[in-house]
């Protein structure tokens, strides 16, 4: 029950506190010089195989935490110098990754300072 609560809470927080502000910010970016005056949109396209979740609980927690850290890093890249409004989204993604990491066995956790 506790793990399910963490997963549901993390999913809702990711949608509302990370993806929503990221999507809003992305729609303000220019498409490129070939389309002056037009802005980009959120494509919702995944560039990796979606069926890559393992049926084993511990590696699944590690994968979810890793992906949340990647998302936090990408939000941080965008926020630094260009879109400081995404700093709260970056911080929220980091907090979600920390919450998920608490369920990752020590042997599967990344080395300290590797995020």
Helix content: 40-55%
Total helix count? 3
Beta-strand percentage range: under 5%
Helix/strand order:
HHH
Mean pLDDT: 85
Radius of gyration: 16 Å
Largest sheet: number of strands, sense, barrel closure: none
Number of E strands: 0
Structural class: mainly alpha
The parts where pLDDT drops under 50 for at least 5 residues are none
Task: Characterize the overall form.
Answer: elongated
Question: Span between N and C termini?
Answer: 29 Å
Write the layout of secondary structure elements.
Blueprint: H1 2-26, H2 57-79, H3 87-101
Helix pairs in contact: 1-3, 2-3
Structure report:
- The longest helix has 25 residues, at 2-26.
- Helix 1 packs antiparallel against helix 3 and helix 2 runs antiparallel to helix 3.
- The model has no long low-confidence stretch (mean pLDDT 85).
- The relative contact order is 0.17.
- The protein is mainly alpha-helical and 115 residues long.
- The protein is built from three helices and no strands.
- It has helices spanning 2-26, 57-79, 87-101.
Short description:
This protein has 3 helices and no strands. It has helices spanning 2-26, 57-79, 87-101.
List keywords for this structure.
0% strand, 115 residues, 3 helices, mainly alpha
């Amino acid at each position: 029950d506790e793990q399910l609560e963490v997963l549901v809470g993390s999913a809702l927080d990711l949608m509302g506190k990370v993806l929503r502000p990221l999507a809003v910010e992305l729609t303000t970016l220019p498409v490129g010089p070939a389309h002056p005056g037009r802005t980009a949109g959120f494509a919702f396209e995944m560039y990796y195989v979606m069926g890559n979740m393992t049926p084993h609980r511990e590696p699944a927690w590690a994968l979810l935490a890793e992906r949340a850290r990647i998302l936090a890093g990408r939000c941080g890249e965008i926020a630094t110098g260009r879109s400081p409004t995404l700093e709260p989204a970056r911080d929220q993604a980091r907090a979600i990754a920390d919450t998920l990491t608490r369920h990752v066995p020590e042997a599967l956790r990344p080395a300290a300072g590797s995020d």
